[in-house]
Write a structure and sequence with these properties.
disordered N terminus, MetI-like fold
Length: 298
């Protein structure tokens, strides 16, 4: 009596590769040295220590500053924050305007430029694309003098546009590089279906491509906000009038005015850090997804 055996089908390469990858990750996690976790903990503490010390210093008067500089001391002097806010409030408004407008401009132009280079063919496309990529290799400090001459010829000195326009022109290069790779990875069938339904180019961009790239756009927005909010060199070159100075310049001037009274100065640093801390607290997951999807798509 013969028994019929069922042939064993070979596993597909995708399944085998996925199982192999899972086993490699599992072995790597099992081999993690506990000492490395301790090192990471120490590095994390060292990272947050300056922020904690800054908060402690912001509530001190002169006597506490000289005798208990790096520790928490009472009473806490809230008037330091009142004095700091009265000094930096006008500058913070200017920084908000510059940051919001420049970030919106970078996102809009990056989406348009990245979509054109990803989905369309035209003469000289590759040459123009590599010329744009070459701008990423040039340090921004080397373009400081030419940009200043251009802004001066346009009569934009001592205006917020002297910051907004260069921030947009400089930030869109990396944005186009990031979004072009993502848009190029989207399936062409999706755009063909949209064309059959009568969708135009801008409709496909804003209704299809942009919603799918929300995580990458969020990451790009966070990076642009950090760059615009913390910039010191370019505002110090182009802005001289008090009414248009940004927050970083205001803190710099505040430091010169209160160079012996460190409590209000540290309170100003704390107030200037709050918007960025809140932004990252509410967008940290979006930032992580954007980095991951960018790494996968590129």
């Amino acid at each position: 009596m013969s028994t019929q055996t069922t042939p064993v089908l070979p596993r597909t390469g995708t399944v085998a590769g996925g199982a192999s990858a899972v086993r490699r990750v599992r072995r790597a996690l099992q081999q993690v040295d506990p000492d490395k976790n301790l090192i990471l903990l120490i590095l994390g503490i060292l990272t947050f220590t300056p922020l904690v010390v800054m908060v402690f210093m912001s509530g001190k008067d002169q006597s506490q500053w000289f005798h208990q500089r790096f520790s928490l001391s009472l009473p806490w002097h809230w008037e330091n924050y009142t004095l700091a806010w009265a000094q930096i409030a006008p500058y913070m408004k200017n920084s908000f305007i510059v940051t919001i407008v420049s970030t919106a401009g970078v996102l809009a132009l990056s989406c348009i430029g990245g979509f054109v280079f990803a989905r369309y063919n035209f003469p000289g496309k590759e040459i123009l694309w590599y010329a744009i990529l070459a701008l990423l290799m040039i340090p921004s400090i080397l373009t400081l003098i030419p940009t200043f001459i251009l802004v001066k010829q346009l009569q934009l000195l001592n205006t917020l546009w002297a910051l907004i326009l260069p921030y947009i022109s400089g930030g869109q290069v990396f944005g186009m590089f990031l979004l072009r790779s993502f848009f190029a990875s989207l399936p062409e069938e999706m755009f063909e279906s949209a064309r059959m339904d009568g969708a135009g180019d801008m409709t496909m961009l804003w209704r299809l491509a942009v919603p799918l790239s929300s995580s990458i756009l969020g990451t790009l927005a966070i990076l642009q906000v950090l760059s615009s909010w913390n910039d010191l060199i370019w505002p110090s070159v182009t802005l001289q009038e008090e009414s248009v100075k940004t927050l970083v310049l205001g803190l710099w001037q505040f430091q010169g005015q209160y160079y012996t009274n460190w409590g209000p100065l540290m309170a100003g640093y704390v107030l200037a850090s709050i918007p960025l801390i809140l932004m990252f607290a509410f967008t940290s997951r979006l930032f992580g997804r954007g980095l991951s999807s960018g790494a996968i798509k590129m």
